[in-house]
Every structure is written in C-alpha cells, then in structure tokens.
C-alpha cells in the first residue's frame, strides 16, 4: 500500500518537474510562433495580437524555398545514409580491434573537432577550387564517406561497453571481423544507430557554413539560404522578420518529426536479450 | 551606418550572417568565357541598344556580383539582360571569409559590394579595386557633373579620402548621425521640440535627453535618446569619428601608420557619453534594459534616435507610426561643442569593379546601369536612402507633412555633406571593438579615462602596424 | 602473430574510409592553415604572403586580451562542463521511463538543441533584462533588490545558466546509453535486495561511464570554443564585443578575424586553443582508466 502511494507521489512530482521544464523549453518556440503571425515590420510581441497565416505562404514564395528544401534533402540524405554507416565501421574498429597506431589515429579523429572550422575554411576552398570540386555536391559525398569524428567517437564509446563474450561467440562461429560487426554488433546497437541518425540528420539539415562556403546560391540547402538570403520586399533592404521566423519554423519541422519518430527506436530498440549468459 | 536593422527579432530568425549572396559559375571558373567585348559602352538605360541579333549563347558573358537581392531585384536583372543579351547577371552571397577565399583563388565577383566609408580605402590599398576615373568621365549614362559631394568618398589617393582616382560609386547614402524625434514623447515630458534649422551640439543633445527621460519610481517609462535602431544607447567608434570631424581633430597621423587616442576631443566625447549612460538616458549596459532603441522609439518610449535620412523609410513603413506621422521629424546632425557643422555619411554602401575581373567592360556596362540607370531612380523613389545625383534628389518622397519636414531639413544638411569620416584604412572595422573594449568598463567604474585612451592607442597601433606590413 | 597481422589488416581496412578522406581532404587544409598562422595573411594578400616566424604566437601571449580570456574560458568551462553533464544526465533519467507521454516530453526536451542559438538568447534576454525582466520580478516578490544580470558581476553566472538550459544536447545520447543497460542486471540486483539509490550507484552510473565520458569530452571541446552565446547575450550582432567577464578566448579570436581581418593572428590564437583542448582531453583520457568502465581493454 505504502509503496503504491509512494510511487504515485513520485510519478506526480516527476510530471511536475517535466511540465515545468517543458514550459521553459517551449517558450522560445512559443515566441517564434506568435511572432511569425504578426504584421510585417511590426515590433516583436509577447502576447499575440495578429494572425497572419499568409506569412507562411510568403516564406515559400519570396525566395526559391522548395528548390533549397530539395537541396537540403539531398545533402542531409547523403550524410545520414553514408556517414552514419561509415562512422559506425570506423568507430567499431577503434573500439574492438587492437592494432598498432590505434591510439594515435584516434587522437587524430578527435583533434579534428578541436580546431574551429574557420582555420581550415579558406585552405579547404583553395583545395577544392584547385581540383575543380567547388560548387559541386561531390565534396559532401566524400566527407560523408570519411565519416564524422563526433559519431565515430560516439559509436566507439557504445561499442566499448558491449560485453566481450559477444565477439568470442562470434569467433567460435567462424565469423569474420566485418561479419561480426554487421551481423552481431549493429543489430544490438539500434539505439545508438538511431541516435546517430537523428543527430546526423539534425546536424546536416542545419549546417549553414559548409554549403555556404563551397556551393553556389542555387545549390544552397534551406538552412544556408534562410540565414544568408534575407526575406525582403521588392526594393527594400529591410528584412521581414515575421516571414523569416515563419520560414525558420518550417525549417525545424522535419527535424522535430524525425526526432519524434526516431526516439522510439532509441527507447524500444533494445534487443540485448540473449547477450548475457 | 549599420543598416542591417538587426532588430531584437533578428534573434528569432536564423538570419545571422553578416551580408552575403552567393554563387560561382561552373567548376574552377572556366565555364562561359567567350570573348565578347561589344556592348560594353552602350547606353545602359535599357531599350534599343542591341535589339537586333539575338546573340548566341557562347557569346554570353556572366558578370557576378555580391550586391544583394534586396538591392537588385529579379525584375531589374531581367530588364537588364533583355537589353544586353550578351550579359548574364549572377548574384552571389558573400561573407568576409568566402570573399577572402575567392580572392585567394582569383575567383572573386566582377562587381564587389562594399561600404564606401569604412571599406573602400582598404580595398584600394589591397589592390582589389579597378580605377574607374576614365570610364566615369566618359560615360553617357553617368553624368559626373551631377554627382552629389558624397561620391568623393569613393576617391582615394593612398592617404586621403576624397582625393585621387575614383574607384566606385555608392548606391545610396544618408546623413547617418542626424536625429529623428518623436513629438509624442516630447509632449509627455513637457519639452518643446528643438528648432530644426539649427544644429545642436552633442552636449546639448545629451542634456535634452536627460530632460526627456521620465521615471516612475524605480521604473523608466520613457527614455530621452536611442543611439541606434538595433541596440543600446552607448557611444561607438563611428559616432566618435563624426564628433572628431566636427571638432577638426585627428587620431591618425598623416599617412595613417600611427594612431593616438590620447587627445582632448576623444576624452571629451567619451566623458560626455559615460555621463549620459550613468544618467540613464537610454537602454544601456548599466540599466540592463534589453529593448532595442528602434523598438522604443517607434513605441513612443524614446524621444530621439540617432539615425540618417534612410530611417524615414522605417518610420513611413511602420504601422503604428503611420497613425501619427506628423509627430515625427528630423533634426540636423549635431556638432562637437564649438565645432563646425558636418553631416557626413557613415556608410555609403556601393560597389567597385574587381581589378582582376576577366570582363571589365561588361562589368562596367552593368555597373553604370545599376548606379546611373533605372535602378538609381527606383531607389530614390522609395526614400530608403539618398541618391548620389543632385538631379535625382527631387524624386524623394514629398507627399506627407512628415516627408516635407524631413526633405526640408535634408536640403540644409546637404550643404554640410562634403566632408568624410577620418577613417584609418589600416584600422577600418577593427576600431569598433577596440573602442568598446575600453569604454565599457568606464560605465561600471572599473577603469578611468586615461587608462582607456592609452589602452585604445596601444591596441590600435598593433593592429595598424600589422595591416601596414601586409600591404607592403 | 598471424592473428595479430590479421587484426591489423582488419583494423586498417575498417578505418580506411576515414583515413583516406582525412589524408586527401583534411590534411592539406590543416597544414595550410597552420602555415598561414606563421605569415602576415590578412584576407587578401595570399599572392604575396611573407613568413613572420613566431611573431603571431608571441603576440598570443603578450596582447592585452588573450591570456586573460583564456583563464576566463577555463574557469567558465570548469563550472559549465560538469554542470551541463549532470543536468543532461538527470533529465535523461527522468525521461527514460515509459511514462505516459514520454515521447512528447522527449521531443520537447530536445527542442533547445534545435532552436537556433539566437532565439534562445532572445528568450533569456527577456528573463535577464533590467526593466521588468522575469528574474528581477521574482527577486522583487521576495523583497530583494534588483540585480544587473548582464553587468560585470553577474554576466558569467547568467551565461552559465543559459548554457545549462541548452544542455539538452546530451540527453539523447544518455537515453541511448540508458537503454543499452541490460534490464536483467537491474532484475538480478533487485532480487539481491538492492535499493533504488544503490542500484543507481552500482549499476547505472558505472555502465553509463563511457557515455558520460563522451559527453564530458564533447562538452569540454564545445565549452572551450564557446563564442556565439557570449556575443549575442551582450549585443545584437556578431561583431559586437561582449562585456569583459564574458569575453571568452574564441570570441577574441573571431573578433580578430572578422572585425579586423587579422586572419593570421586569429589562426595563431585558435591553434593555441587547439593545443590547450588537446592537452586537457589527453588528461581526461588518461584519468579515464580510473573511472570509465569498458568491457574491452583500453589501450597500450
């Protein structure tokens, strides 16, 4: 009896905390939504006093919205499909295969994240220009094939926590190292794979600078286009904030949907049964 | 001034980047480069020039520019391309890094957008700008005799702005240090609006601002002064340069290789502002009011704002302001105490032609059309800035009482617009941050004025010395 | 021996995608970027660079900002990293259960990491602002006097509060980690009569250490490179200078590059930051064998 009432008390206070946090987290979204519905050039508000849904249609019409969205789909598609896969492969090698030079190479992987991108942006531009890859999607494909340091590190951490017996049993079955990864490690790592895919999609979908530096305007993804090309009425130099906000909100919708659908795989994807014992 | 209009709400958007517009042509810049020097010196006005012979695609030249889409609309481009079938215009968004990368690979745009006051001298020193003197003098579209004095801001002889060859043109400009007032706020404080035919001194502006600030207990219900549309009522480097120009004082030596902030006018300027900040005349770091100056001004919660003619466009376009447009008006650019009257521009955004452009003739055709042709008329009519031709001034809006008040004060201001901010090309944009670094602590009593000016001098000279070395 | 060769071949073929792309596409820019930090590169003089030796690096240690900013950044990170790590962990624990609506809550908690920084900052400004701000209003209820949240004394506190709010970035990764803990471990321990707290201490935390480790390293890298938040918290544009207590090291570097076109100097500043981050990461890595629980043997 006592236990149950304790538990329901616990559940209520948990809900209490969750709801308070939710309000704090939802507030910027609320601000964005109400301000996306205001009149053009009006002063930002805290309480809605207008309802201009037309801002959303202007957001798609004043710039080449759908073309940019299409580019976003291509670029983030490349990243999610290829880089999530190769990062796993590399991460697995760093986690589970002993080889000379492994520690040093892993530090190299990590150190690519320790240098702000600005240092290499101009040299990268020069390189891509020399080999004729500026203004093509090819560099993004190559970078995806190379995997992403953040995800390599993430995979490595997860794979290092998986019990050793797993490999031993695979070896007894005569699996090659690659087969062990593919047939045994990946299937039980669905939460991590889902996490990587979600974060990867979010990262590439929202990447502004990379595409800006190495692509030309009609190849920009939506995030780059929205932050580099402002919404302006014809002839005016003033950015129409209300329409920009509407566009910004449309930009995050796919990320939210992907997250909502994807998080189920993180939470329900445990197939750990059968590992132990 | 920084027109970007980064209102508070810019926050909500993703619009973060400085400027921009992008797009190279094909890989490695080879693409379409057939020789075609014709059509260059044709009149840019549009019509008739090349009506015959629809030129074949391989005769087409692509001219790239980072003039933004807001400044050059798709319709305008289509019009131009129809009149000049051999030229295609491509807009490209750029920031400083991408421009540097393109300069390093010799693939920068043909027509490069820049700020006249702060950027032009350094672009000339860097050897990026093409000398346009002869082309402008021989142009049939652009009448150099009709230029407003502000155009000289694109002349530079290596030492002095306003002298030597001309490298580009501004698209428009404003007397950026003038004052706009809101009579509603003056009435609330029971203070009469100053005489718009006379320029106040900056000290008088500050005193007036103090009188216009209204408190209700602890809460400020109305401020006297907003320093700009996007931020706090605090001094800044550009504004100081205007003060120094009026006071006839210099922080740079003759050839701009040394800087010294330790002069009385600089100290006076800073002291005056620190006093104003401490007196709460606007939102600032001390009272930590995060509402932006422009929002306060348009909401009748700030009586004055420091801004140029272009700001009349903001007022005209604001729904609330439209309901009492007659309450607004412009006052002349203030002077330093005892100084001369000057109404310089703080921006004069325009463009140059890239010295290493592969198609300078076609770039020029576009250039003269954009600065002297129909787009120039279009710009003047909107009232979002001042034209660079004297003869186009009457295209500015003059319908409402507000339009007329602003237009009249402007006529007076124009007589004082032939002097330019004493910008040091080696310091250019860096002055802003150095200034802020040493002035901010003064508000909080963490430093004193001598420490501040000496610190500025030291930091600025390091940056100047480096920049000088890099141009050798 | 034969086994060892086989493993080495397997290792290198599996990391080859990364290795090849790294050698072909990242190594040249890295070295070139390093070279530029030893020149007088100013953003436009690529065709006539001159080598200036250690000049820029000397400047890093002698200019009036960098070392102060570096210390400031380190102090900030020492507070920010553990705090954010802990908050994200606690939030993840709350969300890991299968309570009603957990999917919605998770999505909401994920929001801070996808809402652009700039709108986050706008919200916090409304909270920190002096004239009718949320925090000062609350202080007023308790009869306390108002505080300048973005002034000299409290600006860093405010920055840390704002950064903690955005700690949700790590939640997702913790969730994945928590779900990787086999449920039978908990079941076994509850049979042994272990309480909630001791299960948390003896099972959850140890098994989560690889993930905690990941978030600490990533937090460290991010925290030492922080620049956007301090800039926007003080000003409204990217070139605005933050108030002194929030003038972080990376802010300094970016200001040199973007406001003054001092590319070479800015790059030298960032290479020094790189070395600092690298050293700190190596320290954390070395200590990891004492507190991170791995199934496999670490290193040799």
UniProtKB/TrEMBL annotation, chain A:
Task: Report the subcellular localization.
Answer: Cell membrane
**How is this protein annotated for GO cellular component?**
plasma membrane
An example of a Gene Ontology BP annotation on this entry? transmembrane transport
One protein family per Pfam: BPD_transp_1
Domain called ABC transmembrane type-1: residue spans: 69-262
Member of which family? Belongs to the binding-protein-dependent transport system permease family.
Q: What is this protein called?
A: Carbohydrate ABC transporter permease
What is the species of this protein?
Cohnella zeiphila
TrEMBL record, chain B:
Under the heading SUPFAM superfamilies, the entry gives: Periplasmic binding protein-like II
Biased segments, Low complexity type: 48-59
Q: InterPro entries, alphabetically?
A: Bact_solute-bd_prot1, SBP
**Annotated signal sequence range:** 1-20
Task: Please give the residue ranges the record annotates as the region Disordered.
Answer: 25-61
Where are its TM segments located? none
Protein's recorded name: Sugar ABC transporter substrate-binding protein
Species the sequence originates in: Cohnella zeiphila
From TrEMBL, chain C:
Q: Which UniProt keywords apply?
A: Cell membrane, Membrane, Transmembrane, Transmembrane helix, Transport
| Gene Ontology CC annotations of this record | plasma membrane
Q: How does it sit in the membrane?
A: Multi-pass membrane protein
Q: Tell me where it mainly resides.
A: membrane
Cite the InterPro entries for this sequence.
ABC_transporter_permease (IPR051393), MetI-like (IPR000515), MetI-like_sf (IPR035906)
This protein's record includes keyword Cell membrane: yes
Q: Which residues cross the membrane?
A: 12-35, 74-95, 107-127, 154-176, 207-228, 263-285
**Domain ABC transmembrane type-1 residues, every copy:** 70-284
| CDD domains in the record | TM_PBP2 (cd06261)
Instruction: State the Pfam families in the record.
Output: BPD_transp_1 (PF00528)
Q: Which domain of life is it from?
A: Bacteria
Output one GO BP term: transmembrane transport
Location in or out of the cell: Cell membrane
Return the similarity comment. Answer: Belongs to the binding-protein-dependent transport system permease family.
PANTHER family in the cross-refs: ABC TRANSPORTER PERMEASE PROTEIN, ABC TRANSPORTER PERMEASE PROTEIN YESP-RELATED
What's the name of the protein?
Sugar ABC transporter permease
Organism of origin: Cohnella zeiphila
């Amino acid at each position: 009896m006592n236990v149950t009432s304790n538990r329901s008390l616990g559940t209520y206070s948990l809900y209490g905390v969750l709801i308070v946090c939710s309000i704090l987290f939802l507030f910027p979204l609320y601000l964005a939504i109400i301000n996306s519905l205001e009149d053009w050039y009006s002063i930002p508000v805290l309480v809605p006093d207008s309802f201009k849904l037309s801002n959303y249609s202007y957001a798609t019409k004043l710039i080449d919205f759908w073309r940019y969205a299409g580019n976003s789909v291509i670029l983030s598609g490349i990243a999610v499909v290829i880089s999530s896969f190769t990062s796993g492969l590399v991460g697995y090698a760093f986690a589970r295969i002993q080889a000379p030079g492994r520690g040093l190479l892993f530090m190299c992987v990590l150190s690519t994240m320790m240098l702000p991108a600005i240092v290499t942006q101009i040299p990268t531009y020069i390189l891509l220009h020399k080999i004729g890859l500026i203004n093509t999607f090819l560099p993004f494909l190559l970078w995806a094939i190379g995997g992403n340091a953040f995800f390599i590190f993430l995979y490595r951490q997860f794979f290092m926590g998986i019990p050793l017996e797993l490999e031993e049993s695979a070896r007894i079955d005569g699996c090659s190292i690659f087969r062990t990864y593919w047939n045994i490690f990946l299937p039980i790592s669905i939460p991590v794979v889902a996490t990587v895919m979600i974060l990867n999609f979010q990262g590439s979908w929202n990447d502004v600078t990379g595409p800006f530096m190495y692509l030309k305007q009609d190849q920009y993804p939506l995030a780059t286009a929205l932050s580099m090309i402002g919404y302006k009425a014809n002839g005016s130099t003033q950015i129409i904030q209300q329409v920009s906000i509407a566009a910004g909100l449309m930009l995050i919708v796919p990320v939210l949907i992907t997250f909502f659908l994807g998080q189920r795989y993180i939470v329900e994807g445990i197939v750990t049964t059968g590992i132990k014992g | 001034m920084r027109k970007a209009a980064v209102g508070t709400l810019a926050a909500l958007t993703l619009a973060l980047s400085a400027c921009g517009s992008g797009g190279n042509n094909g890989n490695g810049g080879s693409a379409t480069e057939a020789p075609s020097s014709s059509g260059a010196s044709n009149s840019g006005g549009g019509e008739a020039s090349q009506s015959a012979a629809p030129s074949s695609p391989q005769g087409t030249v692509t001219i790239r520019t980072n003039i933004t889409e807001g400044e050059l609309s798709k319709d305008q481009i289509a019009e131009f391309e129809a009149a000049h079938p051999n030229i295609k215009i491509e807009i490209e968004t750029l920031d400083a890094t991408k421009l540097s990368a393109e300069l390093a690979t010799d693939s920068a745009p043909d027509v490069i957008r820049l700020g006249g006051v702060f950027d032009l001298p350094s672009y000339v020193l860097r050897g990026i700008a093409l000398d346009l003197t002869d082309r402008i003098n021989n142009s049939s579209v652009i009448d150099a005799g009709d230029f407003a004095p502000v155009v000289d801001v694109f002349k530079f002889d290596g030492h002095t702005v306003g002298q030597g060859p001309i490298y580009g043109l501004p698209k428009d400009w404003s007397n950026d240090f003038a004052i706009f007032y809101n009579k509603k706020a003056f009435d609330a404080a029971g203070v009469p609006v100053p005489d718009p035919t006379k320029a106040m001194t900056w000290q008088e502006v500050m005193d007036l601002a103090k009188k216009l600030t209204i408190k209700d207990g602890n809460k400020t219900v109305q401020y006297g002064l907003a320093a700009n549309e996007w931020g706090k009522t605090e001094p800044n480097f550009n504004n100081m340069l205007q003060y120094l120009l009026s006071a006839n004082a210099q922080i740079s030596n003759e050839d701009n290789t040394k800087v010294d902030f330790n002069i009385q006018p600089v100290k006076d300027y800073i002291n005056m502002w620190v006093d104003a900040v401490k007196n709460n005349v606007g939102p600032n770091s001390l009272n930590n009011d995060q509402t932006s100056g422009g929002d306060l001004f348009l909401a009748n919660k700030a009586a004055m704002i420091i801004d140029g003619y272009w700001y009349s466009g903001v007022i005209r376009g604001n729904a609330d302001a439209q309901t009492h447009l007659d309450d607004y008006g412009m006052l002349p650019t203030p002077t330093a105490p005892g100084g001369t009257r000057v109404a310089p521009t703080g921006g004069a955004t325009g463009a140059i032609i890239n010295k290493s452009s592969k198609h300078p003739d076609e770039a020029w055709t576009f250039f003269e059309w954009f600065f002297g042709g129909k787009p120039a008329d279009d710009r003047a009519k909107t009232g979002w800035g001042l034209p660079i031709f004297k003869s186009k001034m009457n295209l500015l809006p003059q319908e409402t009482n507000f339009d007329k008040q602003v237009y009249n004060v402007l006529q007076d201001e124009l007589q004082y617009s032939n002097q330019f901010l004493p910008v040091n090309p080696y310091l250019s944009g860096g002055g802003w941050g150095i200034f802020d670094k040493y002035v901010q602590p003064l508000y909080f009593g963490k430093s004193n004025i001598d420490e501040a000016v000496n610190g500025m001098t030291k930091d600025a000279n390091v940056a100047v010395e480096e920049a000088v070395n890099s141009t050798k | 021996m034969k086994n060892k060769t086989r493993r080495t071949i397997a290792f290198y073929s599996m990391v080859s995608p990364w290795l090849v792309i790294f050698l072909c596409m990242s190594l040249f820019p890295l070295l070139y970027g390093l070279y530029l930090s030893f020149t007088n590169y100013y953003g436009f003089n690529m065709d006539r660079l001159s080598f200036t030796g250690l000049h820029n690096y000397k400047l890093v240690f002698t200019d009036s900002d960098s070392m102060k900013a570096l210390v400031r950044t380190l102090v900030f990170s020492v507070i920010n990293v553990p705090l954010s790590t802990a908050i994200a962990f606690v939030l993840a624990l709350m969300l890991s259960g299968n309570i009603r609506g957990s999917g919605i809550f998770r999505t909401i908690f994920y929001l801070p990491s996808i809402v652009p920084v700039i709108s986050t900052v706008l919200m916090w400004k409304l909270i920190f602002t002096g004239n009718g701000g949320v925090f000062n209003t609350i202080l007023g209820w308790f009869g306390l006097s108002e505080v300048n949240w973005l002034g000299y004394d409290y600006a860093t506190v405010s920055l840390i509060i704002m950064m903690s709010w955005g700690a949700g970035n790590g939640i997702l990764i913790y969730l994945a980690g928590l779900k990787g803990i086999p449920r039978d471990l908990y079941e076994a321990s509850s049979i042994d009569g272990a309480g909630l707290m001791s299960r948390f201490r003896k099972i959850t935390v140890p098994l989560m250490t690889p993930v905690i480790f990941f978030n600490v390293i990533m937090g460290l890298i991010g925290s030492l490179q922080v620049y956007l938040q301090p800039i926007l918290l003080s000003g409204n544009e990217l070139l605005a200078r933050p108030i002194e207590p929030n003038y972080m090291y990376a802010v300094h570097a970016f200001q040199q590059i973007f406001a003054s076109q001092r590319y070479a100097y800015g790059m030298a500043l960032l290479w020094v930051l790189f070395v600092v981050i690298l050293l700190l990461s190596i320290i954390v890595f070395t200590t990891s064998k004492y507190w991170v629980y791995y199934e496999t043997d670490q290193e040799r």
